[in-house]
Amino acid sequence: MSTAEAVRTDTASTATTAVSVDGVDMDFGTGTLAVRDASFTLETGRFLTILGPSGSGKTTLLRLIAGFQTPTRGEIRIHGQRISAKPPHKRSIGMVFQRLALFPHMTAAENVAFPLKMRRHDPATTPDKVDAYLRLVRLDGLGDRRIHELSGGQQQRVAIARALVFEPDLLLLDEPLAALDRKLREEMQLEFRRIQKELGVTTINVTHDQREALVVSDEIIVMDHGEIQQAARPSEMYRNPANAFVANFIGVTSFLDGRFDGGALDVGGVSCAGTPVSKLDPGSPARGAIRAEQVRLGAPGTTLEACDTQLDGVVDDVIFEGERLVYVVTVPALGDAALRIYHHDPAAQDLYGAGAAVRVGWTEADLRIFKKTGEPA
Ligand SMILES: Nc1ncnc2c1ncn2[C@@H]1O[C@H](COP(=O)(O)OP(=O)(O)OP(=O)(O)O)[C@@H](O)[C@H]1O
């Protein structure tokens, strides 16, 4: 029986909950809490990403879960057991950080074997285990290479095999892909997903890359200023952001500031159709958010189909992104508010040039109206 199975059997009542974080604060004595009142649970076998800007408390929360630090308040349990109650060498947690900390003088296979040696696994089974995990990360045949003889992506794979070879209950990833170039990063994101699905190991990943969070995760937690802003599945998070911060952090979103008039968003006397998603009193300051793929664009004077609000605009900029164009359109009636609009026909590049008059519009469902709090980043 593996350690993981043993722990799960011991704590049958919490068998499906791998990690529970309950009312956790972390105070470093700096005047603001690095983590404030964090609570969530993660089921066994799920892949969670903690997403947020720099300084939002992601790494602190991960380090608390790893047991490197003790929360000022609250409790963290892994398979029902308090993490602080277990000495570090008894914790069944694999980790991969941005700095991989591989041993340069050892071969790839020796690096992968290291945690087994430290945990006093049966030496007779070690070579087979090391081979199996090198195969899992698609490094079969490269076990004899020293670390400096491997590419950045291959070194990453060694680090993943080393974190997983002792079959931990939990895998923690702290921005392991941040230093890689974009193409390799995207390839490794898919690899993390494949390996995690293949092994079914409960995983918590920290990143500030929204695309990575959407691609690899079963669940996402968005943090800002030490607080969890929203916890949801990726598609739910994208479609129904809980507040303007989340709407801004995930996806390309334009904002309109005004007042809630009881039904729509009033921007300087112009009524903008939208759907309130926060509890709003009529007359209160409000912020409308609309995704770049939800704003419709047409020639001046045309009627845009199904749009509840239609206004004249002027193209300020056209950005070519390969598979799509991004139009930046200013709307004089809305105090020159700028809307970013996706257009998925790069062949139509010269459809509207900078300075062209256009018509923009949206449906009531597409403009989400939030309570106005702080400024979007
Ligand atoms: N050991 C420490 N002592 C004092 N303050 C700390 C300590 N560790 C973190 N902090 C502070 O806590 C806050 C959260 O930091 P944390 O590293 O968790 O953020 P993060 O979201 O992981 O940021 P990044 O993406 O830049 O790594 C920051 O304001 C940071 O300065």
UniProtKB/TrEMBL annotation:
Which InterPro entries does its entry note? AAA+_ATPase, ABC_SmlMolc_Importer, ABC_transporter-like_ATP-bd, ABC_transporter-like_CS, Mo/tungstate-bd_C_term_dom, P-loop_NTPase, Transp-assoc_OB_typ2
* Domain ABC transporter stretches: 19-250
Give the PROSITE patterns listed for this entry: ABC_TRANSPORTER_1 (PS00211), ABC_TRANSPORTER_2 (PS50893)
**Keyword Transcription on entry:** no
Q: Name one GO biological process term.
A: quaternary ammonium group transport
Q: Which UniProt keywords apply?
A: ATP-binding, Nucleotide-binding, Transport
Q: Which GO terms describe its molecular function?
A: ATP binding; ATP hydrolysis activity; transmembrane transporter activity
Provide one Gene Ontology cellular component. Answer: ATP-binding cassette (ABC) transporter complex
Annotated PANTHER family: SPERMIDINE/PUTRESCINE IMPORT ATP-BINDING PROTEIN POTA (PTHR42781), SPERMIDINE_PUTRESCINE IMPORT ATP-BINDING PROTEIN POTA (PTHR42781:SF4)
Could you identify this protein by its name? Putative spermidine/putrescine transport system ATP-binding protein
**Could you tell me which species this protein originates from?**
Tranquillimonas rosea
Specify the taxonomic lineage: Bacteria, Pseudomonadati, Pseudomonadota, Alphaproteobacteria, Rhodobacterales
